Amino acid sequence: MARPRTTSDEAILRAAGRALGRLGPGRLTLGAVAEEAGLAPATLVQRFGSKRGLLLALARQAGPGARDHFARARHDHPAPLDALYTALGAMAAIVRTPEDMAFSVAFLQLDLTDPEFRDLAAVHARIVGEEIAALLESAADAGSLAAGTDTAALARSVQITYNGVLILWSLAGHGDDLVQTLHTDLDRLLAPHRAATPA
To answer: What InterPro entries does the entry give (predicted)?
Structure first.
């Protein structure tokens, strides 16, 4: 009879995420993840095969993780635009320092050069775009956006703004609060598309 697993893959991946946040993908080792998870490195090899396998498992979580941010935001904020700001703010809040962004860019190198990582990154980007578009469509239906707003085009602009703010903040604006900076830029983007306030 196989021995039961005392530590779930989900718990290991949470530990891997913490270690990744400290070390980045280049310096991450199975030993560091094992220490964070309180396991032997051999256990990680058995579960994931290699460091690359572990990183792929983390990348597979990104899309569902993004949906979770949006689901929680919808639950907490019935107004679609409030939910949009909250979800994107929660995703951005993972980046606390320029070093955090550097680790994200290092992971992006994997996304751009390794087909398996690229496919998973594309799934994540598609999911985020879909979630943004759905909230903007809900905002239009609720009368929060001007009649005739092209919500699909606006969703693309919102997603570009989100990613651009992360890069620019990490380069020059890290004295400011990242989430507030993101919200300010979203305000600028969405202002022309908001429905006029009744007099």
So the answer is: Homeodomain-like_sf, HTH-type_TetR-like_transc_reg, HTH_TetR, Tet_transcr_reg_TetR-rel_C_sf
